[in-house]
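Why run this: before we spend reagent on co-expression, it is cheaper to look at a predicted model of the complex and decide which construct boundaries make sense. The entries below are exactly what would go into the expression plan.
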Amino acid sequence: MELFVKMALQAWDVQIKRTEKLINSLSDEQLLQEVAPGRNRGIYLLGHLIAVHDAMLPLFSLGEKLYPELEEPFIKNPDNVDLVVTSVKDLRERWTTIHSKLSEAFNAMSAEQWFQRHNTMTDEDLQREPHRNKLSVLMNRTSHVAYHLGQLMFIRHD
Amino acid sequence: MELFVKMALQAWDVQIKRTEKLINSLSDEQLLQEVAPGRNRGIYLLGHLIAVHDAMLPLFSLGEKLYPELEEPFIKNPDNVDLVVTSVKDLRERWTTIHSKLSEAFNAMSAEQWFQRHNTMTDEDLQREPHRNKLSVLMNRTSHVAYHLGQLMFIRHD
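The model came back. Tokens follow.
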């Protein structure tokens, strides 16, 4: 695998591992709290990250989404305390499943594949803007996890 | 410039621009507030990002730090409301100055330079771990800005 693909994958892994470590250190009760007054609850951010990462499967032609039902409550809609979508325990399991699957699929991709267009772009788009490829999506998602990790950190009582 | 370097620089720019846009939309008074109860104030995160980014100049052999005096209050020490280091206005100006300087210097670097070791590594380190180069530092800093941007967003009253 080419060096820069390895670097981008490592940057992604670092953020996923940091987030995972934080989530594992928090109780279900803590994850049901808002990260700050009037802001999203931990469970919402957890579901949001799972749903956004799950969507990389079809976007990168790696298969269908595992959890299409999470898009509505965790991407299309804001947090809603009155709507119980699923349990924290269930989301913890889905977090592990989707990231294992992505890790396996990502590591099997060639450098050439990473520089191909993703599925919402046409061949002409890519010719005009060659930097908008799968690897650039991964780099954007890496910043996106970091963004929400900074918020999830506020749940900690330290 | 090689495609991958361009992608990493764009990912950095996206986070810097988003943070800048947020900072510009906040008043000095808002930036003097804590981002959440008991958490860092906006001014601290602003100074922290300036100090961390400033340190990339010597790290990448691009010159001396512009603001070495910011390291002590904004990196080595936690936020302290009783210590007035400087004004929000002054930090806004420094933000602009350091990011203009970095942007110019980064765009003048060749792809080869980005894959060289940074100044806290030896040649032997880089031979053993070739992915720990200047570009990997930039990618880590990109996640770092995103992390604190997620927190700064909480100052907004929307």
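Residues 2-152 of chain A form a domain with the Four Helix Bundle (Hemerythrin (Met), subunit A) fold (CATH 1.20.120.450). Residues 35 and 158 of chain A are 13 Å apart (CA to CA). Bring this page to Monday's planning discussion.
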